[in-house]
Amino acid sequence: MSPDVELTESAAEADGPAGEGDVGTDGDSDLTEIETVALGRIATATSLSELEDAERDALGKRSRFSARYQQLGRMDPSERRDAGRRLHYVRARIEAAVSDKRAALTAVAQAERLAADRMDLTEVLPGVLAGHLHLVTQVREELEDVFVGMGYEIAEGPEVETDWYNFQALNIPLDHPARSSVDTFFVDAGEPETVLLRTHTSPVQIHLLERGRLPIYAVAPGRVYRRDTPDATHLPVFHQIEGLVVDHNVTFGDLAGTIDTFVQAIFGADVRTRLRPGYFPFTEPSAEFEISCTICAGAGCRTCAQTGWIELGGCGMVNPAVFEATGVDAEEWTGFAFGFGIDRLAIMRHGIADLRSFIENDVRFLLQF
Ligand code: DAH
């Protein structure tokens, strides 16, 4: 293209086709046709490449428009100015149409791309859900860790027991009143009412003593069963942990110190423990052990019935009758035992109002721990 100062100036004027100095094609029918054809093709272009073709055909080097442009140089200056203005006017109109159309086609293409890529933020995708251990299991493992740290072994016993392991060897004879407090589930095997789901973890004491490997420092966590209707403080299936120590010269002081140690490990150093006289057939003397209330720190509240203390479990010195039932020399060996509910310990530590939350499988509850 020949650089033409006049044309360049008029480019500014022709900036807007409807602006001042608008010259139109001024009766130049050839130019009118160029413009009409170009604008028609631009308007009907359905893609960016069609639009480029239309633009090239209208204004490109081999276009009629370009030929007209080259003729300018041969015109005499008086005509050249107006002819230049007209050409420039047409070019500006075509370029504006191309630019508008390009914007429109780009917008359409983008909308199509977006529609294809559309992401539905309301859709629930099955993400990778990593579960975690149930709170009761977590607490059980913590307890195991504490006792392993104190040199204890972790023992296990069967959940289906005979009457002998669950009651008789623990000095609970058939007619003993302690049986009625633990109405149980009998299993239909052997003699009627001789095989049952264990009502506590204490029968593991019998298995350990029968094994005859002394001394014994063991805890036995596990599931136990009672014929209870579920309510805020009872479940028919729950968890206990049993402790048994048998050695020479074991004292009640050792028992008290052991309870203090694991309670502080689980509840923190501020929590105190105390023993109150109690009764269990398999320990003598027996005690109930209590911890200072985790809600009011001992001041007295509804949870602890204004006493400042909460009962956690039972304990005592192993009754010589138990040693005798299992063939352990009661003259030589002494021991202590304890047992308590893991679920109960968990609700106390975490301020959970209702034991049933543990078995309802509501993730909103479970995810809190
Ligand atoms: N087995 C008892 C119960 O389920 C708890 C218990 C009390 C366990 C005293 C013991 C103990 O080892 O010495 O209620």
Overall mean pLDDT stands at: 89
Topology as a string of helices (H) and strands (E): HHHHHHEEHEHEEHEEEHEHH
| N- to C-terminal distance | 79 Å
What is the count of β-strands? Answer: 9
Q: What characteristic shape results from the CA principal axes?
A: rod-shaped
Helical region count?
A: 12
Label the structural class.
alpha+beta
Q: What low-confidence regions span 5 or more consecutive residues with pLDDT below 50?
A: 1-21
Portion in helices: 40-55%
**Spatial arrangement of strands, main beta sheet:** 1-4-5-9-8-7-6
Strand residue content: 15-25%
Small molecules bound in the structure, each named once: 3,4-dihydroxyphenylalanine
Cα gyration radius (Å): 47 Å
Largest sheet: 7 strands, mixed
Strand and helix map with partners:
Layout (H helix, E strand, L loop, with lengths): L4 H9 L15 H16 L3 H12 L4 H8 L5 H40 L18 H15 L3 E2 L5 E3 H4 L28 E3 L5 H9 L4 E10 L11 E11 L4 H16 L5 E8 L2 E10 L16 E10 L1 H6 L8 E8 H9 L12 H4 L3
Parallel strand pairs: 1-4
Antiparallel strand pairs: 2-3, 4-5, 5-9, 6-7, 7-8, 8-9
Bound molecules: 3,4-dihydroxyphenylalanine.
How does this model look, in words?
With 369 residues, this protein is α+β, with helices and mostly antiparallel strands. It is built from twelve helices and nine strands. A seven-stranded mixed sheet has the order 1-4-5-9-8-7-6, with helices on both faces. Strands 2-3 form a two-stranded antiparallel ribbon. A hairpin with a 2-residue loop joins strand 6 (273-280) and strand 7. Helix 1 (5-13) packs across helix 5 (77-116), helix 2 (29-44) packs antiparallel against helix 3 (48-59) and helix 6 (135-149) packs across helix 11. The protein is rod-shaped and about 140 Å long. It starts with a helix and ends with a helix. Mean pLDDT is 89; it is low at 1-21. It binds 3,4-dihydroxyphenylalanine. Residues 200, 202, 242, 280, 283, 313-316, 337-339 line the site of 3,4-dihydroxyphenylalanine.
